[in-house]
């Protein structure tokens, strides 16, 4: 497997870091491991708060792996792939611990979904976002509920419909996806670590109870996101999508 997920714990802070040589893209194996690692961190009594970040100092996440998308041959394989994003989002949603997102660079498609699924997200000024799915004939069906929950239906619709247009980190900050943005990597990391250390000293019971209230109204997501994954899994088989992905890969 080219990609990876690493987990460390120190002083009550669990850090989950994912990476992939192709701009931190998310093939199914990485998605599965990321969901399982987040679930394990949630159950670890030594972990009081979780930091979720990606490798390197450039792109946060390029979203779905185009290489894997082109290998999908039927509805079942499509569902299996896109359900990986559902599992990551639901792992964030159901975690007993607060998850702090650290977004150091651009986020595309599923990467925007990951950034939307944490409880609080700090980002770099370079962390522009784009929901590119419609441009390849799919649509942000799985990540849509998480994105809409964070920035509202109007802003999510703007992202989803203007699928080739980047929105700046400032735009994302003004609409609530990012809590704060920073002009350099060191400042971003310092802010994330400072918040993590404060939360690690807070009451675990109070934080777990607060998290549950903040996610009220999402109890149906186990079913909803799998239904959405089935839609994407079917659409990815279309000739339009095959040609669009081939065109993107050729650039």
Brief overview:
This protein is of the alpha/beta class and 251 residues long.
Question: Can you tell me about this structure?
Answer:
The chain is an alpha/beta fold. The protein has a single domain (4-185), classed as 2-enoyl-CoA Hydratase, Chain A, domain 1 (Alpha-Beta Complex), CATH 3.90.226.10. It has 11 helices and 8 strands. A hairpin with a 2-residue loop joins strand 1 (4-10) and strand 2 (13-19). Helix 3 (75-94) runs parallel beside helix 4 (110-117), helix 3 packs antiparallel against helix 10 (221-235) and helix 4 packs across helix 5.
Give a topology summary:
Elements: E1 4-10, E2 13-19, H1 28-43, E3 49-54, H2 66-69, H3 75-94, E4 99-103, E5 107-108, H4 110-117, E6 120-124, E7 129-130, H5 144-151, H6 153-161, H7 169-174, E8 180-182, H8 185-200, H9 204-214, H10 221-235, H11 239-250
Parallel strand pairs: 2-3, 3-4, 4-6, 5-7, 6-8
Antiparallel strand pairs: 1-2
How many strand units? Answer: 8
First CA to last CA: what distance? 25 Å
Could you tell me the CATH topology label.
Answer: 2-enoyl-CoA Hydratase, Chain A, domain 1
Mind telling me the C-alpha Rg? 17 Å
Overall domain count: 1
Unreliable stretches covering 5 or more consecutive residues: none
What global shape is seen?
globular
Neighbour order of strands in the largest sheet? 1-2-3-4-6-8
Largest sheet: 6 strands, mixed
User: Do you know the CATH architecture?
Assistant: Alpha-Beta Complex
Q: Could you state the oligomeric state of the chains shown?
A: single chain
Which class in CATH terms?
A: Alpha Beta
Structural class: alpha/beta
Strand content is 5-15%
């Amino acid at each position: 497997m080219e990609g990876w997920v690493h987990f460390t714990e120190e002083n009550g802070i669990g850090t989950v870091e994912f990476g992939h040589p192709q701009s931190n893209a998310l093939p199914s194996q990485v998605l599965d491991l990321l969901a399982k690692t987040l679930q394990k961190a949630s159950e670890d009594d030594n972990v009081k708060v979780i930091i979720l970040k990606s490798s390197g100092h450039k792109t946060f996440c390029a979203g779905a792996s185009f290489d894997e998308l082109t290998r999908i041959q039927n509805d079942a394989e499509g569902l299996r792939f896109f359900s990986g994003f559902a599992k990551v989002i639901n792992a964030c949603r159901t975690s007993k611990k607060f998850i702090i997102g650290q977004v150091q660079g651009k986020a595309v498609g599923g990467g925007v979904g990951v950034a939307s699924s944490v409880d609080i997200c700090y980002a770099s000024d370079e962390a522009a976002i784009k929901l590119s799915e419609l441009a390849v004939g799919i649509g942000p069906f799985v990540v849509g509920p998480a994105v809409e929950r964070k920035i509202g239906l109007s802003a999510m619709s703007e992202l989803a419909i203007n699928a080739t247009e980047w929105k700046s980190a400032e735009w994302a900050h003004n609409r609530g996806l990012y809590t704060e943005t920073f002009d350099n990597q060191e400042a971003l990391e310092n802010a994330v670590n400072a918040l993590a250390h404060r939360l690690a000293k807070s009451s675990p019971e109070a934080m777990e109870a607060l998290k549950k209230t903040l996610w009220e109204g999402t109890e149906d997501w186990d079913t909803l996101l799998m239904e959405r994954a089935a839609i994407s899994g079917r659409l990815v088989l279309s000739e339009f999508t095959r040609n669009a992905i081939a065109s993107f890969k050729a650039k």
